[in-house]
Specification:
5 strands, mainly alpha, 2 domains
Length: 213
């Protein structure tokens, strides 16, 4: 996830050159494609990172602008190397993972569960709202509804069924969670449909002899 402007593009091109990274698919690494929501894919040939794939995007479905994501970022420092890593906040990562891919939904569930396990002892209201909005485990959601009844109303705009669901009926909760997932999968398919059509046109218009996949 990058800020897509001319200066940043030049800096990133220099970094990719140092990694001996080749663009392996359409579209090309241009701002116009990043601004339209495409991902640009690279494969590294440098001996230290041979085969590493790098996917670059500047916007994600369901997520805020880069500037807002950066404000909410999580900073991780490695004391052994003094390296600093800026990563997407868990709340935004969960939103970004709401795709049509099967592998992303178990990851969402584990991310929210791990966040609850880590912070459940003394949570902030923002954490409680995150769990109520994004929890995908029926037993955990029932526990949250019982534990934080005063926080439920604020989460209802994003999950309208929270105000009426029976916390004892785990089967009903599972049904509602699945319906929610199905709706997000469909929304993701609809989001990517025009972008995929554009990619196919780019492939068809590619000069003969280009071996990129």
């Amino acid at each position: 996830m990058i800020l897509a402007d001319s200066e940043n593009l030049r800096n990133l091109q220099a970094a990719l050159a140092a990694l001996q990274a080749d663009c392996i698919a359409v579209p090309e690494f241009k701002l116009e494609f990043l601004h339209r929501g495409h991902a640009v894919h690279f494969r590294c040939r440098h001996p230290d990172v041979t085969g590493l794939r790098i996917d670059i995007m500047s916007q994600l479905r369901c997520c805020d602008s880069f500037e807002k994501l950066y404000e909410r970022r999580t900073t991780i420092e490695d004391p052994e190397t003094d390296a600093v890593y800026e990563v997407v906040a868990v709340e935004d990562l969960v939103r970004a993972k709401k795709t049509q891919r099967d592998k992303d939904w178990p990851m969402i569930r584990r991310l929210v569960e791990a966040h609850y396990d880590l912070n459940g002892g003394a949570p902030t209201e923002a954490m409680v709202q995150f769990w109520l909005r994004e929890c995908r485990t029926s037993t955990m959601l029932a526990e949250l509804l019982l534990r934080f009844p005063g926080s439920v109303a604020a989460a209802v705009p994003e999950r309208p069924w929270l105000h009426s669901v029976d916390v004892q009926d785990l089967e009903q909760i599972e049904f509602l969670l699945r319906a929610e997932e199905d709706a997000q999968r469909q929304a993701d398919r609809e989001y990517w449909r025009p972008l995929k059509e554009e990619l196919e046109q780019l492939r068809l218009n590619r000069p003969r002899g280009n071996t990129s996949h």
